[in-house]
């Protein structure tokens, strides 16, 4: 995988076509999400639980936060997708995560791993993330610090926030594709490494206010899971990022402070349409 | 209890009077809620905790989320009502639920059971719901799938969401009145089965956006508990549903997407008045 | 410490000057908060987790909710400040609180204790609060009932809400200064007892709607911790209260019901400026 420099015009044409194909798939995925309203099993953190559920409902999916080890297997068995987030784990949630991940892996149900806070300071969750990676999540997503560190690099983080920029590190995430179909790094621009498309996709949009609202990354992980129930992993990951980027951009046009921005963001997540996706999606194919 | 068909005109008159009596009781209950600001002990899920507390505060009550087994008895002893919600149970919360339910049952304090996700897929909580039902909750509330299944029927659910309509199944809930004073089934219309009124009450209103906001049912359960501290079980249940239905209807007139709707909904929960109740309550007595 | 009666005019002048010094320190602290964006380790309750994180982000800090005992030591070691809130403790969180408090005490990192619900009814958390007080929190904050009871007085509370007024009891908190640098009692007016300033500071502002939004006190505790990472304990405590009081006052000018008030409040927390602090801060030095 090469850095996107010195691109010839024929390559540019190729990319233009590919972007159109992707855009069509995103519209299709969004439509399917509204039709199927897939049941998404979420094991998430105490900060994100309410917010992620509201984002999924607003987007068209049907979330259920089942995070105890006694029901994780039976529920994961019937869910259309699973989202595991390591934000504020408890011992019981950790057990539930392992059980649910094993269950969906055995059944072939798509699942997303969000290794919040991955790194040497937060060892307990990081050990669990390492174990979960070996169960082959369909998609791994996180911020630049988390994903780069998970991929084996030494990167600083600041608590659960990244200290490096997504466009600096996305190529470092390449080794993770040995374990999953798709890796997503969110940041000012989002980068998605896709194994089956053999490409890196860059998504632009959103607003600088998004990191000022807690749990947006966690909710994005849950939304990727929702989309993965209705389309292939790479298109699911791209679709969720495009959905977020457009909603963030349109919300910011209405509100420039965090409280009202977040209200508008949920509105725009819900008010998405095929037309808005076509009009506002900013997708670039790099490679 | 018979299906509400072939009603004679004299029965209609009876019902008209009865509705007026109920409306008066709802206004009275709302007024008492503002005056007494009852302390409501809530053991609820991680998705609903913040939202249910905000709904109770907005409505006039004083919520306290005490969900550990070490303080459940002493706190349940002083609370004016208890709300138990099985959304995302932990082992410690399960212990707290049993202790709190036993405490309030012994003291005669009213309490509400919300068996979120009841059904064969979520066995751990369903077993606990079965045990709690035997402690005779004052009121049992849930969506159509949950209540119908709890009453012994085989109904499909989709995670924690209902797949059947409230008006199809409310009569199936009848056997539950052997264990409680009142059963409430929320949905497009809400149905309340009352033992002491010997009637089924239908509440209309709200908005189609309400199920698109997570934890509204959970917050409704907590609000029923709040009202049960200031009036009889059936009027408490009706009052909470009317309060929600009017707030939902008025909020929807202001906002047609989920984020801003939810903000307006909390505003309208807080801005309720005797006049609004009289003007907007849509209560029908069936039987 | 004497009650502020019979004050001579020379003392009034003294106080006027002191208020100006404090105001300057508050502006400085707010500016530093924006610059340093300190990492704040929060162990908080399920009701407050999302809200407190959003308030800290809006205010300029970088929150991380790390509430398990297995990562509490390593994370507390790198955090710029720690906030411990006893709202809805679990056994694992209780362990995390002790470990984190011991860690920051040993390192000299500032930390805030918020003994939510302290009193004879909620013995488990109150015993923990007593233990944590002996570890010398930098700042202790709570409502009038909690702080007065923690200081050894017999005061009634209503669940987690106060039944006494802050201006009635703030002098009762004096003995707590044997264990900490600063004590803050929030209420209609806020009172801050400072050991190093040898004074009681009164902060006015806010809105009567603030207690109608859940977890505002918890978020205030977390914000005090954030400020304590960038300035001395007393100025940190004052700064956080001033930040809240101004945001509450300005939010109320925009919205008079709880849902929209809370959205505006988050906006105003984020839109704070040195100018607004100078224009709106209502600080009185009592002693």
Automatic annotation (TrEMBL), chains A, B, C:
GO biological process, one term: thiamine biosynthetic process
Pfam families per UniProt: HK
Top-rank EC class of the record's enzyme: transferase
Entries under CDD domains matching the protein: THZ_kinase
Superkingdom in the source lineage: Bacteria
SUPFAM superfamilies: Ribokinase-like
Molecular function per GO: ATP binding; hydroxyethylthiazole kinase activity; magnesium ion binding
Family assignment from sequence similarity: Belongs to the Thz kinase family.
Name of the protein described by the UniProt record: Hydroxyethylthiazole kinase
Lineage, uppermost ranks: Bacteria, Pseudomonadati, Pseudomonadota, Gammaproteobacteria, Moraxellales
């Amino acid at each position: 995988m090469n850095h996107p420099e010195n691109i010839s015009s024929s390559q540019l044409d190729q990319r233009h076509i590919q972007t159109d194909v992707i855009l069509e798939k995103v519209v299709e995925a969004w439509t399917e999400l509204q039709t199927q309203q897939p049941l998404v099993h979420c094991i998430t953190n105490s900060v994100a639980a309410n917010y992620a559920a509201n984002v999924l409902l607003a987007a068209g999916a049907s979330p259920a936060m089942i995070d105890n080890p006694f029901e994780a297997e039976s529920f994961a068995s019937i869910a259309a997708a699973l989202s595991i987030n390591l934000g504020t784990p408890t011992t019981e949630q950790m057990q539930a995560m392992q059980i649910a991940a094993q269950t969906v892996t055995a059944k072939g149900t798509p699942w997303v791993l969000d290794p919040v806070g991955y790194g040497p300071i937060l060892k307990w969750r990081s050990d669990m993330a390492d174990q979960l990676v070996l169960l082959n999540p369909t998609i791994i997503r996180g911020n630049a610090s988390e994903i780069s560190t998970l991929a084996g690099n030494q990167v600083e983080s600041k608590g659960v926030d990244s200290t490096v920029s997504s466009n600096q590190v996305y190529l470092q995430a390449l080794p993770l594709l040995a374990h999953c179909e798709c890796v997503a790094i969110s940041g000012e621009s989002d980068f998605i490494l896709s194994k089956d498309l053999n490409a890196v996709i860059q998504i632009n949009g959103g607003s600088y206010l998004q990191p000022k609202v807690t749990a947006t990354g966690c909710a994005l992980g849950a939304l990727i899971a929702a989309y993965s129930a209705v389309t292939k992993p790479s298109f699911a990951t791209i679709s969720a990022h495009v959905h977020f980027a457009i909603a963030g951009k349109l919300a910011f046009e209405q509100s420039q402070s965090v409280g009202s921005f977040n209200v508008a963001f949920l509105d725009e997540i819900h008010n998405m349409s095929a037309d808005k996706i076509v009009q506002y999606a900013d997708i670039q194919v790099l490679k």
